Amino acid sequence: MSSTTFPARVEALRRRKSLVVGVVIIGVLVVLGAIGPFLLADPSERVADPFLSPSASHWFGTDSYGRDVFSRCVNAIWLDLAIGVSVAVLAMVIGSAIGVVAGYLGGIVDDVIMRAVDILMAFPGFVLAMILLVSLGESLPKLAIALAIAQVAPFVRLVRSKVLSERELDYVAAARVSGARWPRVAFRHLLPNSIRPAAVQLTLVCGYSILNVAGLAYLGVGIHPPTAEWGVMVAEGAANMLTGQWWTAFFPGLMIAVTVMALHFIGDDLGGDRQ
Amino acid sequence: MLRYVLRRLLISAVTVIGLVLVTFLVVRVLPGDSAAARLGPEASQADIETLRTQLGLDDPLPRQLLDYSTGLLHGDMGPAVSTGRPVSDELLDRLPATIELAVAGLVIALLLGFPLGLLAAARPGRPSDALARLFAVLGSSMAPIWLGLLLIFGLYSTWQLFPGPVGRLPIGTPPPPEVTGLYVVDSLLAGDFALAGQSMQFLFLPALTLGLGASAAVLKMVRSAVLQTADSGFVRTARAYGVPGREVLLRDQLRNAMLQVLTAIGLVFGFLLGGNIIVERLFNWPGMGRVAYDALGSNDLGLLQGYALIIGTLYILLNLVVDLVYGLIDPRVRLGGSSS
């Protein structure tokens, strides 16, 4: 890999269009989210009349309080990406650990864990996250935890099934005969070799979580106004859609769609789903 | 076959019991106090205590679980604190509206996702494939609430093609005489075709909102199922005999991929049930999701618990049926025994 020439690498990337598109979009968003807040109007301040339609001075128009929708969208970038990434990482860490243990130990442990996973899968993820959030009480970390628990099951399944084939290989036997105990074999040897399928899921879950946050915000749980967050903004703007001020909900929803799409593109590529 | 059916039934029963346990634990054991939540921050400690005793929240946990599960066996989920009516009545009254919406959404998802998935798989890597997959990515990247708003804005506010988000029928129109609770079916049974047409018009936008998102999942599953058959022996043999590609695709590959579509229906239905709470609120659709939304507003954890339990049970039942049909069609499944 490291010995390939630069033109060869460019050529390789040219064939991985969806990865490039996805990474570029996310990269632009991250940069915009980093510098935007210093250049744009305060997202929580009234800067103009309410409900101005998109124009040169207010690209995405203004909302019902006269706040600048573009500035609010840009300010929300880091928050939304942070939620998406932390939920995905949390779900992956928990799910892979459980999956490795289930796959490596097998037997009763495996049976019990897989039944528990079936039960988790019986809830639509969104409903599970909603119930958990209401019972836990609301805060940003709890939101991330509730969303992560709702997404743990697929990670367990993916990692477990990889471990089932991986554990028959020689390096595992070698580790075992060298005297390593099972946690060491499972976490030091098997886990790094079984985590790849979970990487694809990681990008997808990151996207789902941003969508789920939006859905929860519309139901009035999770993140609340006046926080500048895309889902909250769509929820706040929902009523204006019928009265004609489409831009208040349209642009934040577009940000969500573009972000989640970019994550899907990256996931498709990592999943070996390229042309 | 009997062994397979029994095994599947047993697994489903265990899962339902687990579901009851999990919903119970989530609502009763997690730090939230449903009595305090119900009465709001102004309530005095004494009021909270009284309500706690009334609801049986002070009993020891195993006792509570026993009471709850005996109640469940009699179809009793306890009273809904916010309305006073039994939880089961609150939810089951609305079940037909939710089923009607979910089934309509499923039909739209299949009508869109199935042909597009086939089109994509017919020429993998070609422009038709790329377009279909772009559609799939777009469909799964839009927040349901946003998609619904766009549809309302375009098809109702701007072009007036479909009725606005006011529920299942125009305000003031009496529903058809109740047989199944599905308005489209009931009005057809009553011979009222105008009413059937009207309910279908009202059904269309919410169903499309649900169906568009779900069609992306169907598309992906159909595409990969058909592509998987492309490497198999029977396809190579058919090709070697000189059968035209299109015929192989439609006759052999599709038929073998049909099994996957069953699985897709099971998965997508879960998606539809989970998404309905948002869509039902957006379109004022009086289904179970709407009840759950109101329960969220009034902090009625018991009602939410019932909602999660019914949705989860429906999902398990549906997947049980899918698995049984699967076993009926494909001998490999019922004879293969345990795959998990």
UniProtKB/TrEMBL annotation, chain A:
<keyword id="KW-1003">Cell membrane</keyword>
<keyword id="KW-0812">Transmembrane</keyword>
<feature type="transmembrane region" description="Helical">
    <location>
        <begin position="244"/>
        <end position="266"/>
    </location>
</feature>
<comment type="similarity">
    <text>Belongs to the binding-protein-dependent transport system permease family.</text>
</comment>
<keyword id="KW-0813">Transport</keyword>
<feature type="transmembrane region" description="Helical">
    <location>
        <begin position="117"/>
        <end position="137"/>
    </location>
</feature>
<dbReference type="InterPro" id="IPR000515">
    <property type="entry name" value="MetI-like"/>
</dbReference>
<protein>
    <submittedName>
        <fullName>Peptide/nickel transport system permease protein</fullName>
    </submittedName>
</protein>
<dbReference type="InterPro" id="IPR050366">
    <property type="entry name" value="BP-dependent_transpt_permease"/>
</dbReference>
<feature type="transmembrane region" description="Helical">
    <location>
        <begin position="143"/>
        <end position="159"/>
    </location>
</feature>
<feature type="transmembrane region" description="Helical">
    <location>
        <begin position="19"/>
        <end position="40"/>
    </location>
</feature>
<keyword id="KW-1133">Transmembrane helix</keyword>
<feature type="transmembrane region" description="Helical">
    <location>
        <begin position="198"/>
        <end position="224"/>
    </location>
</feature>
<feature type="transmembrane region" description="Helical">
    <location>
        <begin position="81"/>
        <end position="105"/>
    </location>
</feature>
<keyword id="KW-0472">Membrane</keyword>
<dbReference type="GO" id="GO:0055085">
    <property type="term" value="P:transmembrane transport"/>
</dbReference>
<dbReference type="GO" id="GO:0005886">
    <property type="term" value="C:plasma membrane"/>
</dbReference>
<dbReference type="InterPro" id="IPR035906">
    <property type="entry name" value="MetI-like_sf"/>
</dbReference>
<feature type="domain" description="ABC transmembrane type-1">
    <location>
        <begin position="77"/>
        <end position="267"/>
    </location>
</feature>
<dbReference type="Pfam" id="PF00528">
    <property type="entry name" value="BPD_transp_1"/>
</dbReference>
TrEMBL record, chain B:
<dbReference type="GO" id="GO:0005886">
    <property type="term" value="C:plasma membrane"/>
</dbReference>
<feature type="transmembrane region" description="Helical">
    <location>
        <begin position="134"/>
        <end position="156"/>
    </location>
</feature>
<dbReference type="InterPro" id="IPR045621">
    <property type="entry name" value="BPD_transp_1_N"/>
</dbReference>
<feature type="transmembrane region" description="Helical">
    <location>
        <begin position="101"/>
        <end position="122"/>
    </location>
</feature>
<feature type="transmembrane region" description="Helical">
    <location>
        <begin position="306"/>
        <end position="329"/>
    </location>
</feature>
<protein>
    <submittedName>
        <fullName>Peptide/nickel transport system permease protein</fullName>
    </submittedName>
</protein>
<keyword id="KW-0813">Transport</keyword>
<feature type="domain" description="ABC transmembrane type-1">
    <location>
        <begin position="95"/>
        <end position="326"/>
    </location>
</feature>
<comment type="similarity">
    <text>Belongs to the binding-protein-dependent transport system permease family.</text>
</comment>
<dbReference type="Pfam" id="PF00528">
    <property type="entry name" value="BPD_transp_1"/>
</dbReference>
<keyword id="KW-0812">Transmembrane</keyword>
<feature type="transmembrane region" description="Helical">
    <location>
        <begin position="9"/>
        <end position="30"/>
    </location>
</feature>
<feature type="transmembrane region" description="Helical">
    <location>
        <begin position="259"/>
        <end position="279"/>
    </location>
</feature>
<keyword id="KW-0472">Membrane</keyword>
<dbReference type="GO" id="GO:0071916">
    <property type="term" value="F:dipeptide transmembrane transporter activity"/>
</dbReference>
<dbReference type="InterPro" id="IPR000515">
    <property type="entry name" value="MetI-like"/>
</dbReference>
<dbReference type="Pfam" id="PF19300">
    <property type="entry name" value="BPD_transp_1_N"/>
</dbReference>
<keyword id="KW-1133">Transmembrane helix</keyword>
<keyword id="KW-1003">Cell membrane</keyword>
<dbReference type="InterPro" id="IPR035906">
    <property type="entry name" value="MetI-like_sf"/>
</dbReference>
<feature type="transmembrane region" description="Helical">
    <location>
        <begin position="202"/>
        <end position="219"/>
    </location>
</feature>
